[in-house]
Request: fold
Amino acid sequence: MTNGDLRVKLYSFFSNHEEQISLFLAVEKMINSIGPASIEIRKSQISFGTKTKFAWVWLPQPSSKKRPENSIVLTFGVGRFIENKRIVDSVEPYPGRWTHHVIIQNEADLNKEVFTWLCEAYTFSLIRGRNRKSAFQIPFRAS
Reply:
């Protein structure tokens, strides 16, 4: 996919949500300052990856949870639970991997704390990409 194709998909993703494009671009800039990452734009989210995906941006869905207007959700995956008032939800989809969700309302929300979490997620994706099998997943061979 060319850079032009990516931009077309990006503007399509944010159609009717033009205010959030600048927030996404600020996230993209922050991630690019950490290291090279692929970008994949899907119908409901935009993902960043190295050998595995480590961060996602999506638009808050209308639900019972009140989310600020013109915000985005930044999700990142790390190997530990992080307790912090900025994190609105945390899930352990499987042992040893935690996803955390942070609401981004303005560029100031992308502070040093968020940068540190994204650095950790980036590093975690590189480590996971090298050796995805844990000791419990390696087949046991009886002698």
